[in-house]
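Course assignment 3, question 2. Fill in each field.
Student: A.L.
Task: Predict the tertiary structure for the chain below.
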Amino acid sequence: MIKWQKAYLKLANGRVFEGLAPEWQNQDSYGEVVFNTGMTGYEETLTDPSYSGQILTFTFPILGNYGVSDGKRWESPGIHVKGVVCETVFETPSHYSAQKSFLAWLQEHNIPLICGVDTRELTKVIREYGVLSGVISVNPDLVAEFKDSMALNWVELVSPKVATLSGQGKYKVIVVDCGAKENILRCLEQFDLTIKRVPFDYDYTNEDYEGVMLSNGPGDPKQCATTAAILAKALQGNKPIFGICLGSQLMALAIGANTYKLKYGHRGHNQPCIDLRRDRCYLTSQNHSYAVDDATLPADWEVTFRHLNDNTVAGISHKTKPFSAVQFHPEASSGPQDTFYLFEQFYSQIVAGAGQ
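Answer field:
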């Protein structure tokens, strides 16, 4: 049985939430406090590099009921959040694929946790004030020194240092890894592709390739000026380019448009979007703090998706060239897979372009 101790989540606006932490936890952990509305998928969520620098609140009240698997569902080898906030944690999981408990997993990766928190009230605070800096501590007398944890260039920290090749397909695709979820690669591997996975600042524009994929990643897209500058050169050609999440923001910056920070972002796999071209709505998986300002898009670009909760831009596309990007995650993991057709569309553009 786990032994528990009192713990505290202190926010930069002065609010303090009391809860419990496992006895092995003794460090203070600072981060940007955000919330995720997903009901399942905590393994995929916590291993998503896009959460780097953040303390993640789960609005669904139960974590750990199905334990932690062997890692095949993970989006990277480790956990990227600075801390976890929840209401209830199951100490003993019940699932045929469970290899360990949720708490054991957090301890293994030294990730702070506070449970027993009224996450509904905490979510209301974040929605009212916007995302806030916070700290998880077991010290009731801690005088917190809050800093902007997202001021770091987290993409530089999570992006690979060297380029790697995988697959032996007919067409070569460059994947610019700014903190890519592994399921993006798994989706691409379903097609006849050779995949070259490169660091965020790798200049691929003088190489032979048939397409470029821009991945998701953490933090402010404007910190990735080098990535956007390289992309701007690639956009001078006609080879298909597809961006996901941060990739969408970087594409906007590369064409001279602007991005801005949302009040509390979109996180979860129940985010409704409309495909304006098809006039169809989808529930999508999302995890981002920033959005594209559609008023700054050049005349030869258009908005292709919108988020139905707040009408923010959820997708952009060039009107004549094979350049497009979406703010959500068509690879899901976790979440609905209804927009996988966007990978098929990207592949079709690659095949069509290679035949010219």
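Instructor remarks: The longest strand covers residues 258-275. Residues 4-151 form a domain with the Glucose Oxidase; domain 1 fold (CATH 3.50.30.20).
Grade: pending
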